[in-house]
Structures are given as structure tokens and as C-alpha cells.
Amino acid sequence: MIDFRLSIRIIAFMTYNPYDHYFKQAKKSGYKARSAFKLEEIDKKYKIFDKNVKTVMDIGCSPGSWLQYASDAMKKNRIKNPLVVGFDIKPATVEIPDVHRYVQDIQDTEAVEKIMAGHGVEKCDAIISDMAPNTIGFKDIDAIRSIELLRTTLPLYEKFLKEGGKAVIKIFMWPGFEEFLSEFRKLVGSKNVKTFKPQATRKESKETYIVKF
Fold this sequence. Notes:
This protein is of the alpha/beta class. The protein has one domain (4-212): 3-Layer(aba) Sandwich (Rossmann fold). Helices cover 41% and strands 21% of the residues. A 7-stranded mixed beta sheet has the order 3-2-1-4-5-7-6, with helices on both faces. α3 packs parallel to α4 (65-76). The radius of gyration is 17 Å and the shape is globular. The model is unreliable at 1-16 (pLDDT under 50).
């Protein structure tokens, strides 16, 4: 008997190309990762980085491509004194004026609050997150870990996202997806909250994005 699930996985592996168009374009543009183009697509569609966005929090910022894009977007809008603050348990190796990177577990909300207070920030105009846990290959376990990690970030949106602020959150369409989306909508309001899968995301991926615009 043919195992069709195995066949699909083999086909996906054979067609997977880590050095595709977006990878090459990221290298050419100086971005740390192809994920910058996902944020670019989202920004173009939903106008995330408009002229009102001056302060941005990046949750799970390593390796730094979203920090780079956020900084570039605000420069294009000629924002005076822009501020991007990124948090990750891994270092983000980008050196950009007005971009501040911290090796900090975001689950320690008290520490995050102290850092933001040090920058004189009470509320952010936008919070972006391309964060994901390390996967182990077991779908159910990976799904649980992914959703639970995202749930730990909800207090940050409640604390720091200003009313009418923007948000972009990477999420996988695994079990728990609908429940998290519902929780997020209850927290920030259901108006102007959509899901969107950029073209820069690989077709076989379950990855999508929650966008508040």
C-alpha cells in the first residue's frame, strides 16, 4: 500500500529550495533573512508602517530582518526620532541607529517593562513578531509549543500596544490557531484584524500572519 502522506513529504522535500528568489533577493538587499519580504508584502497591503508609526516593538527579533525593514520603512516616511526595540533570547546581529536589541526572554514582562521605560515608552504604535519555537518534527507537540509561546506574548500587546495600534504576528495554522486568533481579537478588538499569507511564504508551509491594521 502506498503511503500518500510520505509521498507528499518526499515531493515537498525534493521541490524545497532554500536558495530561492527571496533568499537571493535578501542577500542582494542586505537583509538578514527572506522574512523581510513577508513583512514588506504585509506592509504594502495593510499600510502597517504609515506616518503615524514612530515606535515599534519587535518580539523575537533575531536574526534582525524585521528590525531592518521597520527601520527602513520609518526612514522612508521621514519619521523624526524613530525607535525600534527588539527582544529575543538569541542575539540579533544588526547595527542600526535608533534600533535597540536586547537578549531578553519576553516572558519576563517585568524586565521588558523596565527596558521600555528606559526608552521612555509607555505605548507602541506597532508590535511585530516573527517568533516561533524550535520544532522537533512532531506536529501535535510543535503546535502546542507554538501556541503556548504566542500566548505568553499576549500581556505585551495588552500592556504596550496603543489603542488603534498596528500588529503583525506569525502563527502556524495548526491546532490552537483559531483559539489564539479569538483570544487576540478579544484583547485588541475584532475590527481590522485579518489573517494573511504572503507570497514570500513557501507554499507548503502552514505559516500565516495575523494582522491588525
